[in-house]
Write a structure and sequence with these properties.
135 residues; alpha+beta; 3-stranded antiparallel sheet; rod-shaped
């Protein structure tokens, strides 16, 4: 990606320099502004290129791991105290909620299509035991 950006800079600045030699200095200024905005967009892309969400049911525990911009958040849920909300609308996420004393809640499915979100939520509901009723 760095090579592609370098070629873009070279090409854009070469054209801008040709116009600057003819007295049109504003083209050079706009070329620098354009390349700066492209650099900001590429930095934002690189920061989020490795974002992901991972859900695993292992050893009697539901673990949800979310990585965004290099920051990892890991949530642990007891399968018997966990409720899963199936999304009904296209922009709605999967709601995972601990009905215990902690009351932890997490929304997942940011990177999935609406159909895939519904499928994952239904698979989670099938794998999780029914929640324990309060005494």
């Amino acid at each position: 990606m760095l090579r592609a950006y370098g070629l873009l800079c070279l090409f854009s600045l070469a054209i801008a320099a040709a116009f600057a030699l003819r007295g049109l200095w504003t083209i050079l200024a706009f070329s620098f502004a354009e390349l700066a905005l492209v650099a900001v967009a590429l930095l934002h892309y690189l920061r989020h290129a490795r974002d992901y969400e991972h859900i695993v049911l292992r050893d009697g525990e539901l673990i949800v791991e979310q990585v965004s911009a290099g920051h990892c958040r890991r949530h642990h849920f007891s399968p018997w105290r966990t409720r899963v909300g199936v999304p009904h609308w296209p922009r709605q996420l999967i709601h995972i909620h601990d009905i215990g004393a902690g009351g932890a809640r997490v929304d997942v499915g940011v990177f999935a299509t609406p159909e895939r979100r519904r499928q994952v939520a239904q698979e989670l509901l099938a794998l999780l035991p029914p929640p324990l009723s309060p005494p």
